[in-house]
Design a protein that fits this description.
heterodimer, A: 130 residues, alpha+beta, Thiol Ester Dehydrase, Chain A, 3 helices, B: 133 residues, mainly beta, 2 helices, 12% helix
Chain lengths: 130, 133
């Protein structure tokens, strides 16, 4: 077992665009207008179109599966959306190991906007084979 | 209205069935920008949300506030999901409650979805927090 408490996951920086939001809306089948219609988004008091929460969850999922590789399995994964994010800005996905008990490893994960605000926070439980 | 919503707690909605198609996996992986070749055959962590609606359409909830926000999601995984799997998704309202926020009242609706494969094994469970504001 090489995983240690405090170990940081290699950072993953995503560059979401309006094109990606449309692509994601189609792939998920989520056609809520706040993700592609600027006028609609402003009409519900948003600054413009915003990232799907589940797209940010997918980014954090990638952070975890890139780090884990084929060393183990993802057992559970949760995210809370604390703030909105708009396309056109880099989104930094980060994480660290917070507990290790035999094969069971707990991770804290989060996504940061360019100002360093953690707009998505979450956790993952994985098993890592020794 | 909140009472009408609360009456739905724990009641299963009609199930939906869908096959995990390789083309859909590819489009989904491209959309999230994850080039991992593993996702050609296997579903990435959040893919199941693309297979069936993650929330029930609750018209009465739309009387509350002016828009939906996604508060959070929790996935539990029990079996891998692969291309060709036939998945039955069954959703329900798990909880409904109100909270006072700094910018007004909020209505929280917790949705839960169970995903069962063609071998009748529970492959994953998703909990989602939808917020009306």
């Amino acid at each position: 077992m090489t995983v240690k408490v405090g170990e940081e996951l290699p950072e993953l920086v995503k560059h979401p665009t309006t094109r990606q939001l449309v692509q994601y809306a189609g792939a998920q089948g989520d056609f809520y207008e706040i993700h592609y219609d600027q006028a609609y988004a402003r009409s519900v008091a948003l600054p413009g179109v915003i990232l799907h929460g589940l797209l940010k969850a997918a980014f954090l999922g990638q952070l975890v599966t890139d780090w884990l590789g084929d060393r183990g399995e993802l057992k559970s994964f949760e995210v809370s959306y604390r703030g909105i994010d708009v396309p056109g800005h880099p989104y930094r996905c980060r994480g660290k190991v917070v507990a290790v008990d035999g094969e069971n490893v707990e991770l804290e994960v989060w996504g940061e906007d360019p100002e360093g605000r953690r707009t998505t926070v979450g956790a993952a439980s994985v098993t890592v084979r020794g | 209205m909140v009472d009408r919503l609360r009456a739905r707690i724990g009641v299963d909605a009609p199930s939906t069935e869908a096959t995990v198609e390789a083309g859909h996996l590819k489009r989904f992986a491209e959309a999230i920008g994850d080039p991992n070749p593993r996702w050609r055959e296997q579903a990435p962590p959040t893919f199941l949300v693309a297979l069936a609606p993650v929330s029930l359409h609750l018209e009465e909830a739309e009387e509350y506030g002016k828009g939906w926000l996604n508060g959070g999601n929790r996935f539990e995984y029990f079996e891998p999901v692969r291309a060709g799997d036939r998945i039955t998704a069954t959703g329900r309202v798990a909880d409904v409650y109100e909270k006072s926020g700094s910018s007004g009242d909020l209505l929280f609706i917790i949705f839960e979805t169970d995903y069962v494969n063609q071998h009748r094994k529970l492959v994953a469970r998703l909990r989602g927090t939808a917020i009306r504001r």
